[in-house]
């Protein structure tokens, strides 16, 4: 996937109401439809740029706060499982390398 540069500045979201949880917005920005929209509207040939206006044009589903919290909680629980599985894979890869080295007398 190609990266997009947000001009030379860092973007910042300022929440003017309590209708959206910050973490819900964060995870929503990773939705394929949102990422694709930002990529499709980016300009430039060598370095792709976006702008605050283009990001603000994106429509994000806005369920009730309770649902937003549940979604965030579920994503974070699943991310913990993903991280634990990554650690498990690393452990098994290390054990396999050690076993192979032992078989070959290294």
Description:
The protein is mainly alpha-helical. The protein is flat and about 65 Å long. The protein has helices at residues 22-28, 32-41, 52-56, 65-103. The longest helix has 39 residues, at 65-103. The mean pLDDT is 88.
Rounded to an integer in angstroms, the radius of gyration calculated over CA atoms is 21 Å
- Average pLDDT value? 88
β-strand percent reads: under 5%
Instruction: Please give the largest β-sheet.
Output: none
The run of helices and strands is: HHHH
Which structural class do you get from the secondary structure elements? mainly alpha
- What general form does the structure show? flat
What is the helix fraction of residues, given as a range?
55-70%
Instruction: Output the number of helix runs.
Output: 4
Number of strands: 0
Cα-to-Cα separation, first versus last residue: 40 Å
Tags for this model:
single chain, 106 residues, 4 helices
Brief characterization of the structure:
The protein is about 60% helix and about 0% strand.
Give the arrangement of secondary structure elements.
Blueprint: H1 22-28, H2 32-41, H3 52-56, H4 65-103
């Amino acid at each position: 996937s190609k990266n997009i540069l947000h001009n030379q500045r860092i973007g910042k979201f300022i929440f003017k109401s309590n209708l959206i949880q910050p973490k819900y917005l964060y995870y929503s920005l990773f939705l394929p439809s949102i990422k694709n929209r930002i990529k499709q509207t980016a300009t430039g040939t060598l370095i792709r740029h976006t702008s605050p206006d283009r990001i603000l044009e994106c429509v994000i589903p806005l369920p009730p706060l309770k649902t937003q919290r549940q979604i965030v909680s579920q994503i974070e629980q699943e991310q913990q499982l993903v991280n634990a599985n990554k650690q498990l894979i690393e452990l098994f890869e290390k054990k396999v390398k050690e076993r192979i080295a032992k078989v070959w007398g290294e």
